[in-house]
Structures are given as structure tokens and as C-alpha cells.
Design goal:
The structure is a homopentamer of 299-residue chains. Chain A is α/β, with parallel strands linked by helices and 299 residues long. The first copy, chain A, has one domain: Aldolase class I (TIM Barrel, Alpha-Beta Barrel). Chain A has 12 helices and 8 strands. The first copy, chain A, has an 8-stranded parallel beta barrel, surrounded by 7 helices. Chains in contact: A-B, A-E, B-C, C-D, D-E. At the A-B interface, α4 and α5 of A face α6, α7 and α8 of B.
Chain lengths: 299, 299, 299, 299, 299
């Protein structure tokens, strides 16, 4: 990250310190984000939480909060409803409120995806004020290429602005999807939507890892400019491979972190905590994969 | 129920006592809800109220209020219009305002279901203030899997928050339904939507009993976490079987109550009252099915 | 009508007297409504006003106001635009503002019906305040079974509440219609929508007369409860048959009045006035059909 | 025009004089309107302004303002954007702001027409206040029979009311159109939509001349009641025939003026001015066609 | 430009000087606009920024800001998100906020285009106030002929008005497009949409160069009247040809400037700056193409 001002102009002067504090909390001073994704209870219903190869712990949503509270993380992203409910017992977690969500019941093949804003930013602000929780930001998913894209861009643009007005960070999940999208893992297309998110004014854009190696993310990182790219973790991999891949993405492509969900919470609590710690060490402290793996192994 | 704080953070401090009072009223201190459902006059038009095997009393909507006033219940859920009209004569009933409803005229096979919010929470608040009725909460139905799901989630999320801001309870009816839904009684799918409702922030989620025995609800109870699961009563059963089943659901699956409509109001007043009392004893007092059956029989 | 409170709880205390006055004006103390329907200039364009068997007078909208002013009626229902325009010369008529309307140009066979709210209740309130007209209520049509039903229920629920907040009566026209509706004159279906309207909180529900005799309305009257049922007049009948039928509906089924349009305004002024007076005598004074017929004949 | 009050009740007392002044300006005391239509730059793009048989002057929008400023007219109807731009140099023209418009690119055969409101009445009010222009009214087009009719009626009803609240006149262009409309020039249908517009509360309704002679407009004039009917000019005609026809419509059918666009502005400035003066003499001064033709010829 | 007032009446007196300053900044006193278009990161994703024949610099969005800051330009048009992010380091650039955008993923052949407003004018005003950036105007794209045109006209009309209320310039991009549009490069059609934009009240309308020579733009320039026409640059051309063409358009057709995107930013920074300077000299200083070409060559 170069030495430009970290504060965009839609953060008013009265909220500069709040914004900087939120950025500091989420990136631990590294400029990189470690996002623990816990929004799948809507997106994937219970498929990610119960089943073969999934720890028993994961069937209870409190598992997510336990991990977030005990592990070293950047932010824990989930819906406002869960945060309001579990927040009283997990007051120190840095929360990111995911503001839209839909289920996977309707396949992309049968209908282009649309996901609309749940809560307003006024509601987010009221929750922050009433609860004194560490709400550091908000998130929203867009589906470029969907016939509903225009509606989602409009919601996204306004909420990024409103989030910044409150000193909150804004993270956009960007997945090209719909009948018009031939290959949503095309590196050039992913770079395109990363650039689009920069135009929406977000602080971070979460993309899926494109086809090919870590270097395939370079175009996206450049296209996003000062909006920093974080990459979804993927699932079908060993911890070692996961850490190696993330390390490569950070070093070779210059991405600014990761968003990991299932790969964390499908493990038992203790292991999930250690896995978070490993990712955070890689992300925030710049350790090498071997050292991160040792952390995962509790060494 | 474990000993975590019963008050979510979207209830402001000024409404904590109101919320606790409403929770106390609805659960009678048991942590469980006995919901008497009286919203079918829209959902099923007059099919549930007149016909073979249905008590003559049931043709008049006041029947619902008479039961609610004379029986021991948790809450009586129905539309605002009826509450405003009959409330003056039934001031002591604990009411839950069902905020959306549609008819069954359009089959799911011909069009995915959509049901939109009728009254605003401002209107609910005005009614509560002007009437001094015991309005303890609001309800809303979502149809995960419908092509309209996103619109309903947005309404639901906002109204749960707004209800909490007023110290009201929020109950979400959650029925997976639409062309994309193969089997709406699949236990795993029902668990999924129960978890989804937790993300919406509701206090209770009403689901249909899944295929299989009471134990099939366990996944849903876990998935919903601190949002408590209540189960629809079903209809084709004897009182004895009904009470046995509910008891099993409460004990084996740990659900937190039931929502019963037709099975109550299709009986003559006196019998309906006794049936409510039986359900409430089972739910609130933890009596066994035999004792509950005796209550039903007026013993 | 039994002796329950006539004021629903969504009428605030400050408007109780206004509401009672409006109810008194519309029902002349009888608890029954005589509604002169004059909203067909939108619904049927000029088909009801010019043609074979229609009095020459009827081609001019002022005909409606002349009847309403000279006859004994409960309320005269028509659109706000006409009321604002003719009101200055007909200040004493009890008006009911019909708030939605559509034309009959698009057949139900080709598209499910949708009819949206024209004016807001704020506009109605401003007109009432500025004009000092006797605006006693508002009306709205719903089409249960239409794919657009949900949108109309939402508008209807809110406007009934808002009308009551202003001390105005609310009348809902309820016609099951759309591709999903097999027979909109089925008594059981009509009872269903009458019950639905009770849930919307309306004071009166206007239904079409179902297939069969007057007794076929009993189910609807019971289903609507304290929301009172009024019946459309129909058209193809003699005055004598009309009065006999209405008398039977009032006596045998216990409906609370009628809504008559074409059958009134398609007659010359003098005859239309006498016909209204006959209906009103039957409705308000409980005279028998023979006496009512004599009134019609000017005896 | 009979001697009823010219002020509808939705004009508040504080705006009575403004409304009367606007009516006086637009009708020059005659009760009749001469409307110079200049809204075709959206409706017909440049097809009406450049081409064979069209004066060179007409390619520049200022041509419209020059005519409006130099000729005797009732009102000049066009979009707010043009009025805001040219108003500073043409401050004395009586303007009517056309509030919706669409292009003719999409044929009625391929899709039912929809045309939505551009500016709000708050914006109109601000412009009037800031500019001190003679803004005397607003206009809006409805398409009865279109599947979108309900949306347009809702906008129209509200804006007529809001216009009256500001003391502005309201003119509705009413064209039955859409797949459901067999013949939009049917006199009975045109009468129907004229009556519909009376229900919307407009001061004037503009209709197309129906099939047949001037007498075919009588039904519409009666159906519209106190809402006065003005007739579109048509195009394929000589000046003499135009004036004869308008004279017949005024005298035989009792219409209250005309709306003429292309037939005016497709002429060179001087001729267009003389043509307007001829129409105005016929309309306002009740001269005969021969005298009007002499005015057109500059005699 | 003739000597009429440059300030439309929807700019309130309190903002006259702001508007004049913005006009002066954007046109450098020439009445002509040189618009550097940087909104393609949404419209074309990364296709315009990375690829064969595109300078390496262009992959980073900061390249746009570097050009805008170092070159002589009228305005730099891009999305609010980028401006908020890079503005702190490029405070002196004259910005124009493009308020809507969509991707090119969905082809016109498969669905008519729709592009909705991202930020509100209140948000634009807040950004201007908080940042003290040189925000001189806003932009919006309309697609006449799309089945969604009506929605876009409504947004456009309101935002032009609101922009003027703030003293901001308004530029409308106008591209006839959709199934109903046979040839979007037809000169007469382009003239039509230019006239349409004049009705929306915009200060400038950006059109694509029509089929044929520079003279084919004359009709559009006349049709737009006081709304000034600027022309898209096109891409497949040499610098010399580009400058010749623009010169011809300015001189022969009287257009008021150009909007150039890819042709600028796909060059390395230094060359891009020189190319901007050449365009600006041609536009603002009226130099001939040879002199402009020399500027491009750094002579």
C-alpha cells in the first residue's frame, strides 16, 4: 500500500477518527483484511453447517461467535440479526454487518440472481449507538451480469456512501453471475468487477479466486486501485495448501487479505481458532506459510 | 434455554422492560411460546372456518377472540384489522399482529408465493399507544425459495428491527416454497430456513413439522440458535396424538413451543378453550401428555 | 347489530365523535348502509351512462350529484376529482371517496386485475379540511386471487388504518377475480373474501350477490363478523324484484345494506331519486317491499 | 359554461386568486382554452421538426418560444427543461408544464405504452417561485387500456390535486391505447376517457377527434361535465378546413378549445403566429371561420 | 453561442455564481466543453483498460486521475466512488460525477438496457461540501427506445433539476438503444434524442457521431437548441484523423465539444496528457488541427 491518504472524501471530518479506528481494528495496522465470513446461513442455508466432514459444533450459530471471540481475526461478517442476538455475550468481536443475502435455492440457470438490502444504515447506526458493539463496517453482494444488476449497484453505491458518512468500512462481495456470464472465474472478468467496485467507492472488494494461479489476481489488484482486493478462500484443500495459496496471492498478486467461511467454521472450535490465527499471522504479520502452519498446529 | 441475556441489542434500553414484559406474557416465564394462530381468514379464506367437521361457532371471527380470552394461551396471532375491531371487548388478550398475508387462491404450482407487509410498525405503535391493548409482538411470513424471496427478506429484516425498537417480539413464519423447492418438509431444508430466520433477528421461528419423527426437528433447533423454534400443529390427528407429538417435539427436539390454528378454532368454544389449556400446560408447565389430555377432557 | 362498541381501536380518541357522526350519517342510525355507487365512470367508462335503456340525464356526471343531493341516501361513492369539482354546489351530500379505480378495457381473461390507490389520505384530509364537505369515508377495491393481490392488500390495510385515524369510515369492494378464480360468484368464496376484508379492518365490505338465493349470503355475513356486509345491486331486474331481493338479503341473510349504481343513475332524475328513497326506506326504516315500492312510485 | 363556481375544492382558499388568474390567463375570460402544444420533441423526437413540408425555422426549439411570445395563445405546453432554459428570454409566455413524456420508438403493437412523471410538483413550485414565470398549469398523459394504466392514474390523480393545491391548472391528455384497445378513435370510447379524466379532477381533458363529424364529440363533452374538453388539431388539412372543423367542434359539440402542435410550429414564424391568432380569435372571441381565416392571412 | 442568458431558471439566484463558475471552469470561457470520460470501468469493465494496444499505465485507475490532473481538460467524468477515493490527492481536477452506470455483460440483443441512478444529489452535495473538491457537474445516461426509457427519463429530469438547484452542470449521455431501435447512428434519430435532452433541461448532451460526415451533426445541434451538443470521440482512428474530425464537427456542425475516453486513457500518461492538451486547444482556443497535432507531438 502506498502512502496516500487512507480516508476517502465521503467520510466526514467528524468521523475521520472513527474510520481510522475501524480500519486499524480490521487490518491490525497491516493494511490487509482478514475477514471471517459467517453469512452462509442464508446463502447456503444449513448445507455448510451440518453434514459429512463438518464438525458437530458448526450446527449451532454460536459456534461462529465463539470462534470470532477466541481467535485473532480482522472482522467477523454476518447478518445484523445474529449480531444483535449474540452481541451481548460477545461484545469485543469486530463485526461487519452483511446487508444483503439470498438463498441458493433458485439456481442461476433458472433465474438471474438478485439480492436486496435488508437493513438500512439508519438501523445500523442505531444498533451501533445503542449497543456500543465494535461494528466496524458493512458488506453487500453484487452480481454483475445479472439482469437485476442495476438495482443492486444503486443500493450498493448509496450504502457505501452512507457507511462512510458513519465512519464505517464498506466491503463489496462481487460475483459476476447470470445467464449473460459465460465463466465467472475468468481473470479478466474478475478484474473488471474489482474495478467496478472501486467505482462504487468500497474499501475492500471480495472476489473469487480466478482460474489459474495466484498471479492471475494481479490484473484485479491493479484494476481495483485503492480499493483493496480480498480473495475467497475456497474449500477443497488442505490447510497447508490453503496457506500456501493465500501466501502466494498476497505476495505474488498483492491482494490485501482473504475472506474465509466454511474452511474455518466447519472445524471444531479449537481447530477453527488455530486456523484463524494462522491466517491472521500470514495476513497481518507477514509470516511465511511454514510458520503459519505451525500456528495452526498449535506449536 | 441457557442463561444468556434474553434481550437482543436492537431493543433499546428504554424498551428493555417492555420487551421483558412481552416475553414474560407470551412465554409465561417458561421460555416457550404457545401461539394460537388466527390468521387463516386471509390465508385460507373461509375454508378453515365452515365445512364438514368444523364447529358452527367457527364461522364467526369472534369465536377466535372468545377462545383467546377464555383460554390460557401465550399469544393470539391475527391481523391488525380484527384486533382493532374486537380489541375493545377483549382487552386482556396478548396479541401478536400478523403483518403480511395472502390467499391460497393462486397455487404454488402456477406462481411462486409473495406476501407483502400490510401495516407499518408506526401504525402498530400508534395502535398500541391509543388502545392500551396487550400487543406483545408482530409476525411475518417468508417463503425461502420463491423468486420473490429477496423482497420478503428485506421487509422482514426491517420489521424485526423496528419491532425490537418498540420492545415488541418478532415471530417469523418460514415456509420454503416455490418452483425451486422440491420438498418443503425436508428436515435439513427446514433447519436451513430456521437458521435463516435467526439471521433476520427474530425471537421465534415457526416451521412446519418435517418429514419423520420429532427428532427430525433437532437440526432446526440447533440451527436457529437463540432464535427459538416453534412448530405448526398439523391437523389430521386426534387430541391425544397431537399432545403426544408436541410433547415429543418439546422433549426430544427441544423446540420452544407450538403454533396451532385450525386444530383449536375448529372446535366448539368450550372444547377449544380446554384444548388450548392442555397445550399451554404441556408447554408452560411441562406436564406430561396424560395430564394434558386430562385437562383437555376437563378433568 | 349487537351492542359491542361501534368504534374500532384504530380510531384515536380525538376522532371518536367524528367517526360516530360519520357512521350516523351513513347509516342514519340503523347500522345499515345505503351506498349509492358512482364510480363507474372509470370502471366502465361511458358504457353505463349512454346507451339503450339509459336515461338521457345520465350522460352528464352532474346527474349523479343531483340524485345524491335530492334523494335520501347513506353515502355517495365516487372519485375525489368529481367531488372536488361538484362539491361546491352540492355541499350537503355525504361523500365516500373511492380511492382506486381502473377501466374494464383489459379483460380478466387477458390479464389479472390490478387497481392502485389514486390519492393519499393526506390529500383526503386536506380536502376535508379545506372544503368542509361531508366526507364520511373512503373506499378501495381488492381483487383476491389476482397475481397482484398482495400489493392491493398492502395499500388497503394501510388506508383503512389511516382513514380510521382521521375518523373516516372505510369500505372495501371485494371481488375475487383472476385466472386462478374459477367462479367469482361461489358463496363460499364470497364469504372468504368478506372474512378477509374483516382482517383488513374495514367497516363495510361490498360483495357481489353469490349464486343462489339470499340465504347464500349468510356465510359471508358470519365470516365478516363486525365488518358489515353490503351487497351489490345487480342490474337485470325490475324495481319490484330488486326491492324484494334486497329485503330478503337484509332479513334472511342479515346483510347491512346495499351498493347500487347503474340501477339508480340510469334512470331519469326524478325516478332515480324515488328509487333511492325506496332503497333507503327498506334499509334504514325497515319498511316492507310493498311500502318501498309505493315510495318508488311516489305514493 | 354555466354559472357554477369555477374553483374546485382542492384549490385552497389561499390560492383561489392564483387559480382564477391562471384560468383567466389561459382562457382569456372565455372559458375556452387555446393550447399550443410543444411537447413533441420527446413524443416524436425530431420527426415533427425537420423534414419535407416543415419550415426550416422549426428545427430550432426556440422557434416554439418565438411563436408563443409573439402570437396570441392561451398556454404553451412543453417540458420543464425547455421552459427553464428559454424562460429568461421569454418571461411573458403563459406556460403549462407537461410532466410526462415518452418517445414513439416503441410501437404500441409491440408493447403497451407507459409514460411516467418527470418532475415533482415541489420542483414545479420551486421553479415558479424562483423564476416568477407565468406558469399557469401542468399537463400529464394517460393511456387508458394500457396494462400500465393503473400506475398512470395514480400519478395523474395525485398531481392534479397537488397542482390545484398550488393554484395551477391541470390538463390531462387522454389517449386510449394498448393491445386491448381496438379503435382509439371510437367516439364512445373517447367519451369514456373524457369522463375518466373528470374523475381525476382535471380542469381540461385533451382528446383526439373521434371518427365522424364534430357532433361525435358531444358525448365526450357531456361525459366530462365540468372538466372541459379540448380537441387535438390533427394535421392533414388546410388552414381553412382546420378552422372550419374547430368552429364546428366548438359550436356543434360545445368543446372548450383546442390543442394544436405540428400544425402551428411546422410553419415559418410569421405564418405560425398568424395561425395562432386565427385559432385564438375563433376560440376566445367567437369569430366565424371566415374572419379567422382573414386573420391568418394577415388581413 | 448567442448572447442569451447562460443561466437556466432552475438555478436559484443564490447559486448563480456557483453555476457560472462551474460553467467557466468546464468550458474555460469558450462555451465549449472538453469532457474526459472515465466511466468505462463500469460500462466496459476491464476491457478498455488492459489488452493489446493499451498502455500498461491504464490498468490502474489512478492513471485517469494523473491525466486529469496534469492535462488541460474541461471536466473529468467518473463515478463518485473513485472521486471520493482519489480526490484527496487530486484536489484541483474539475470533476463531473457520473450518476448511473451498468456493465456491457448483457447484450442489447438479449435485453433492452436499463441504468439506474447510483447516488442521490443530497449525497453529491454532501461530498462537495465536505471535500471542497471542484465538483462542477453531474452526468446520467439515457437509452431512448429501451422499454425502460420512462424510468430513466424520470430520474434524469429530476436530477438535472436538482443539480441546477445546487449550481451544478448537468450532462446527459443519450444513446438510442433497444430492440425498437434499428440504427442508433441515424443522424435524424440522434438529432431527436438531442432534442429530447433539451427537454430534460441538461446543459450538455453527449451523442455518438452519426453515420456520415461532420455535417450530419448539424440537425442535432439545431434540435438541441441551447443545450449544447458534445460528441463521443470514437476509437478507431489516428490522432491526426481524430483532431481533423473534431475540428470539422466543431466548425461545420457547430457542436460544443467532445467526450473522449479510451482514446485518451489507453495511451501512456505523457502521451495522454499531450493528447488532452491538443483536444483542449482545438476546443477552447480554436486552434487548427495542425497546431493541435503539434501540441500532441509536444512541439
Amino acid at each position: 500500500m502506498n502512502n496516500h491518504s487512507p480516508i476517502p472524501f465521503d467520510v466526514p471530518a467528524t468521523c475521520h477518527q472513527i474510520y481510522l479506528d475501524n480500519l486499524q481494528r480490521a487490518t491490525q495496522g497491516s493494511g490487509r483484511l482478514m475477514l471471517m465470513a459467517g453469512d452462509q446461513k442464508v446463502e447456503h442455508l444449513n448445507d455448510d453447517f451440518v453434514g459429512s466432514g463438518i464438525a458437530e459444533d458448526d450446527g449451532d450459530p454460536e459456534h461462529l461467535f465463539r470462534i470470532a471471540a477466541q481467535a485473532r481475526i480482522g472482522v467477523f461478517a454476518t447478518q445484523l440479526g445474529l449480531i444483535a442476538r449474540y452481541g451481548p455475550d460477545y461484545p469485543d468481536v469486530p463485526y461487519l454487518i452483511k446487508l444483503n443475502a439470498k438463498t441458493h435455492l433458485i439456481s442461476t440457470a433458472s433465474r438471474d440472481p438478485v439480492s436486496l438490502q435488508w437493513h438500512t444504515l439508519e438501523q445500523v447506526a442505531r444498533l451501533r449507538e445503542d449497543s456500543a458493539l465494535n461494528i466496524v463496517g458493512v458488506g453487500y453482494t453484487i452480481y454483475p451480469g445479472s439482469t437485476y444488476e442495476s438495482q443492486m449497484y444503486s443500493e450498493a453505491a448509496r450504502l457505501v456512501f452512507e457507511a462512510h458518512q458513519l465512519g464505517l468500512l464498506a466491503v463489496i462481495w462481487a460475483y459476476p453471475r447470470g445467464e449473460a456470464v459465460k465463466n465467472e472465474y475468468d481473470p479478466h472478468l474478475i478484474a473488471g468487477v474489482a474495478g467496478l467496485v472501486a467505482c462504487l467507492g468500497a474499501d475492500f472488494v471480495k472476489v473469487n479466486p480466478p482460474d489459474g494461479g495466484a498471479d492471475k489476481l494481479r490484473e484485479a489488484v491493479r484494476a481495483a486501485g485503492r480499493t483493496r482486493v480480498i480473495c475467497a478462500g475456497g474449500r477443497e484443500t488442505t490447510v497447508e495448501a490453503f496457506l500456501e495459496r493465500l501466501h502466494a496471492q498476497l505476495q505474488e498478486a498483492g491482494i490485501a487479505g482473504s475472506a474465509t467461511g466454511r474452511n474455518i467454521h466447519q472445524r471444531p472450535l479449537d481447530e477453527a481458532v488455530r486456523f484463524c490465527n494462522a491466517i491472521s499471522a500470514l495476513t497481518f504479520d507477514n509470516v511465511d506459510p511454514a510458520r503459519a502452519l505451525a500456528i495452526y498446529h498449535g506449536e
